[in-house]
Specification:
mainly alpha
Length: 174
């Protein structure tokens, strides 16, 4: 049960962390349907889920992730509202910190609630493997996404240098 809570918190944290990352990447849009399809295929393979188990597991898992995402979205909105105010008071910072703790507690409550539901549809070993696979998939995606961005940024800088007629390989001709 502790492992499920821990894994759930990690997945929630990854979702919270990567969701803004995907939005800022040079107006590059992520195909969420494609991402979800690849994630499900990966988890299904790594956890050894049967088609019937997958059919029961993924809707429940997606429901849990949506609820966690919504909690974090609300928290981010509160932070953004406060950031618009140039001078944030200690009381407002305290409010942010308290809300952060509340979000984590609510996520833990969701994990506990859903742990019971997951236990009804998957044996513990497969549930553990599914959670680990999802965590690994997300880590791989974040790494791949960052690498692509780094490569795109490097290419764009190179193209800017090449296309600038005032820049002659860094040498000034007199």
């Amino acid at each position: 049960m502790k492992i499920q809570k821990y894994i759930g918190l990690l997945i929630g944290a990854f979702i919270f962390y990567i969701s803004p990352q995907f939005g800022y990447a040079q107006n590059k849009k992520m195909d969420m349907a494609e991402f979800e399809k690849r994630k499900q295929e990966y988890v299904k393979e790594k956890a050894g889920l049967t088609p019937e188990e997958a059919e029961r597991y993924f809707p429940l898992n997606n429901e849990l992730n949506r609820k966690k995402f919504e909690l974090n979205r609300q928290h981010r909105e509160k932070i953004e509202k406060m950031r618009k105010n140039k001078e944030i008071t200690d009381a407002e910072y305290r409010n942010i910190l308290e809300n952060d703790v509340e979000v984590k507690l609510k996520e833990a409550e969701l994990d506990k609630e859903y742990a019971e539901k997951f236990e009804k549809i998957l044996p513990p070993e497969k549930l553990y493997k599914a959670r680990q696979a999802e965590k690994n998939f997300i880590q791989q995606e974040v790494t791949r996404f960052r690498k692509e961005n780094r490569n795109n940024n490097t290419q764009n800088k190179g193209n800017q240098i090449k296309s600038n007629p005032n820049n002659r390989s860094g040498k000034n001709k007199k």
